[in-house]
Design a protein that fits this description.
Blueprint: E1 5-13, E2 18-23, E3 30-33, E4 50-58, E5 61-69
Antiparallel strand pairs: 1-2, 1-4, 2-3, 4-5
Length: 72
Amino acid sequence: MAEREIGKVKWFNAEKGYGFIERGDGKADIFVHYSQITGNGFRSLEEGQQVEFTIGQGRKGPAAEDVRLVGG
């Protein structure tokens, strides 16, 4: 099972369905696509929200997968 990381949403564009997460370990920001947000209903993120995720390989490089709100 992949190790989960915790980060903070840097920005997310709900119209385009993607954004970036600031990683808590000082590594490069990571891309997030709405299809990887876990939850019911409209899948979106707000700037500053804390999230946990795993790292997978997207079409253009590393991407967040199985994204969940911390405490949500």
